[in-house]
Design a protein that fits this description.
Length: about 270
């Protein structure tokens, strides 16, 4: 029960730091406080459960939990700005950040039925771009898209919300406008050069300060993305864009908040 109290205290302290009210809706019913909704959602993401099974689990443990529909409505109300503040509050300040993207499938299909239909794998429409602190091993910013898009579209958003001193990324982020954005915001962007892209004042200036040893820190963001999929699943069960956003952001928040559970159990959160 002490570990559960620690989790509740951690969530309450986080919501106080974010300045959120006691109830999420001012004119709604005052039966459950916002922290009770938020704890139930985090448990759902951490244990990979549905809304209904989370309610049943809390009932078995003798804990107060909102209804299935109430949790679903709360998941739809939480905006991306809220989750960005959660990631920022749980990761702190950053010096060296690695940027990369990964994909999630909408469902976890059966390979037996895939072979019976046409043998083709379904597309991965959900794209997650993350900024990963390589020192603290935490996610400091993220951007979710429900349709395929190029990695460079979310790069400025990640750099702006993470605010690092140094950022590393792969060749997909080699663009003159991104180097200009980093220089104007006092950031050092380390991206390897491309054979077909050699022009640009800011690109040449960044290549002079490129360090291969620092660039290899980028491998940690791939380990972080792999850790999210191994611990919390590589597919999402939500259907709407709002609930998909909450589900993916919730997994990143669980990674930042509950990493101490893996240290207590003697396991490494990231290989």
């Amino acid at each position: 029960m002490d570990e559960e109290n620690k989790m509740v205290k951690k969530v309450k302290r986080l919501l106080r730091r974010l300045g959120y009210p006691r109830w999420l809706h001012h004119f709604g019913p005052k039966k459950y406080e916002f922290w009770q909704h938020f704890v139930a959602l985090l448990v759902r993401f951490f244990c990979r459960l549905s809304y209904r099974r989370v309610r049943r689990l809390f009932d078995l443990l003798g804990m107060v939990c909102p209804s299935k529909s109430a949790l679903h409505n709360t998941a739809k109300k939480l905006s991306s700005a809220f989750w960005q503040r959660v990631l920022k509050a749980t990761s702190g300040s950053h010096y060296l950040v690695a940027i990369d993207s990964t994909g999630f499938s909408r469902t976890n299909p059966s390979y037996h039925y895939l072979r019976r239909i046409d043998g083709k794998m379904p597309k991965i429409p959900i794209k997650l771009s993350t900024a990963f602190d390589t020192n603290k091993k935490k996610f400091c910013a993220a951007k979710i898209r429900v349709l395929p898009a190029h990695d460079i579209k979310d790069a400025k958003f990640l750099l702006f919300h993470s605010g690092p001193k140094i950022a590393v990324a792969d060749k997909g982020y080699n663009a003159e406008h991104l180097f200009r954005f980093a220089a104007e915001n006092n950031m050092q962007l380390m991206v390897p050069s491309k054979s077909n892209a050699k022009r640009g004042f800011y690109r040449k200036k960044a290549q002079e300060k490129f360090r291969l040893r620092t660039y290899h820190r980028r491998e940690l963001v791939e380990s972080g993305n792999s850790s999210i999929k191994r611990c919390y699943g590589s597919s999402v069960s939500s259907r709407k864009a709002r609930t998909i956003r909450t589900e993916v952001y919730g997994r990143l928040a669980c990674h930042n908040l509950f990493g101490w559970l893996f240290r207590l159990s003697g396991q490494s959160h990231i290989n």
